[in-house]
Write a structure and sequence with these properties.
- The chain has 132 residues and is of the alpha/beta class.
- The protein has a single domain, classed as Oxidized Rhodanese, domain 1 (3-Layer(aba) Sandwich).
- It is 42% helix and 14% strand.
- The protein contains seven helices and five strands; from the N terminus they run ααβαβαββαβαα.
- β2, α4 and β3 form a beta-alpha-beta unit.
- The radius of gyration is 15 Å and the shape is globular.
- The protein starts with a helix and ends with a helix.
- The model has no long low-confidence stretch (mean pLDDT 84).
Length: 132
């Protein structure tokens, strides 16, 4: 309970106002030491999968499996969490912060903004950067 209180006390108006808890998909993709954490359900991922071969690893762990699979989430990388609506991402963000993960961010705009980054023009720019 003490850890929850400690994390909650850091979540001030300044913290949320500065956007420290979120990151734009484009900014996360530009990171060199980053991964994506997809917390959508298995059914959602089976329907629409993000395979970001040219960009960075995507770890899929449904929100209800996070406690049992916590060791699969690297602590030495910036973890960009996404789902379809930011609700589950926010819950996982808070949970990971309580567990001492400091380098976690919610992908701003969730799945839809992330997909927007992969329209042809933007995708070409991302691929061109990774091919250099």
């Amino acid at each position: 309970m003490e850890k929850i209180n400690t994390v909650l006390k850091t979540m001030t108006f300044d913290f949320f106002g500065s956007g420290q808890h979120k990151i734009l998909p484009s900014m996360h993709l530009a990171g060199k030491n980053s991964i994506f954490l997809d917390v959508r359900s298995n059914a959602e991922v089976e329907t629409i999968t993000l395979n970001l071969i040219h960009h960075m690893p995507v770890i899929h762990i449904p929100i209800d499996e996070i406690p049992e699979r916590i060791t699969e989430i690297p602590r030495d990388k910036v973890v960009g969490i996404f789902c379809s609506s930011d609700v589950r991402s926010t819950m996982v963000y808070f949970y990971l912060r309580i567990l001492g993960f400091d380098n976690v961010r919610i992908i701003e705009g969730g799945y839809s903004e992330l997909v927007h980054e992969f329209k042809p023009g933007k995708l070409l720019k991302h691929i061109s950067k990774t091919d250099k």
